[in-house]
Amino acid sequence: MRWFLKKLLHADTIMATKRVIPDTDFGQIIIRTRITARNISMRTKADGLHVTVPPYCQTSKILSVVEEYRSRLLEKWEKAAPQPLDLNFRIDAPCFRLHLEQGRFSRFTLRATEEDVTICCPPDIDLSQKDVQGLLRNAIVRALKKRAQNYLPPLLEELANRYDFKYKRVKITGSKSRWGSCSAIGSINLSCYLMLLPPHLMDYVLLHELTHTREMNHGPKFWEILDGLTEGKAHKLRAELRNFRTNF
Q1: Per-residue DSSP letters for 57-112?
Q2: How many whole angstroms separate alpha carbon 124 and alpha carbon 101?
Q3: Relative to the CA of 103, which of 35, 48, 170, 195 has its CA 20 to 30 Å away?
Q4: How many CB atoms are closer than 10 A to CB 187?
Q5: Cα distance between residue 10 and residue 57, in whole Å
Q6: Is 106 within 8 Å of 149 (Cβ atoms)?
Q7: Rounded Cα distance, 159 and 138, in Å
Q8: Are the C-beta atoms of 23 and 48 separated by less than 8 Å?
């Protein structure tokens, strides 16, 4: 019995859905267990190294694989790390345009038109400071959310009506890890970062989530429906979305 309890405790440890390990190079290694995973996969993001592993994969084995590919992963991570923002920063996406300029007030202010968004920075502020960078990024995200709130829900409704989908509600989030999601009851979440995508990829994400209102998994039926909505290009669009990169 003691051996059995010990085995259960060990299994519970290695089945943890999320483990975060500090790392001198990446800042942190974020390990997530996925039941459907067959192999260890690694992806660099601005906040560290994200690792997806199969169930019962021991931490020691995961770290051994990370070490094997560390130098190659570091090259990708350095490219993914956020670059400091200065007055030359621009976002020039088809559905969202933003630029910075020096303002006259002692705090960040925002000016928006139908064409673009301007963030006015306080005069003589040191944009290289970490806390100032944080304030500036937060201001940009707020601008993204506000424009997304006005733009994405009507677009989702138009696509739903066109293809006869029903959903319960839609919410705009600041998610960086997921473009969108759909719950079992038909509630759809859309990331404000969708505003940085070209229109055809934005439509793909919205149609992807609408398809989940009929098929919650990613089985053959799901892709059959989504292919019918995208002229047979669902997998091609998914690959293009995965390779999409933005300067913010």
Answers
A1: --HHHHHHHHHHHHHHHHHHHHHHSPPPP-TT-EEEETTEEEEEEE-SSSS-EEEE
A2: 12
A3: 195
A4: 14
A5: 11
A6: no
A7: 30
A8: yes
Residue 87 has pLDDT above 60, yes or no: yes
Residue-wise pLDDT tens digits, 148-203 = 999 999 999 999 999 999 999 999 999 887 899 999 999 999 999 999 999 999 99
Give this prediction's pTM. 0.72
Q: Which residues contact 98 (CB under 8 A, 6 or more apart)?
A: 90, 91, 116, 117, 118, 119, 140, 143
Euclidean distance between CA atoms 100 and 108, whole angstroms? 10
* Cβ atoms within 10 Å of 154's Cβ, excluding its own: 10
N-to-C CA span, the chain: 55
Give the number of residues written for the chain. 248
Is residue 8 classed as helix, strand or coil in its secondary structure?
helix
Rounded to the nearest 10°, the torsion over CA 29, 68, 14, 46 is 20
Task: Answer for the pair 69, 42: CB distance below 8 angstroms, yes or no.
Answer: yes
Q: At what angle are helices 220-229 and 199-211 packed, to 10 degrees?
A: 140
**Do 54 and 38 form a contact (C-beta atoms < 8 A)?**
yes
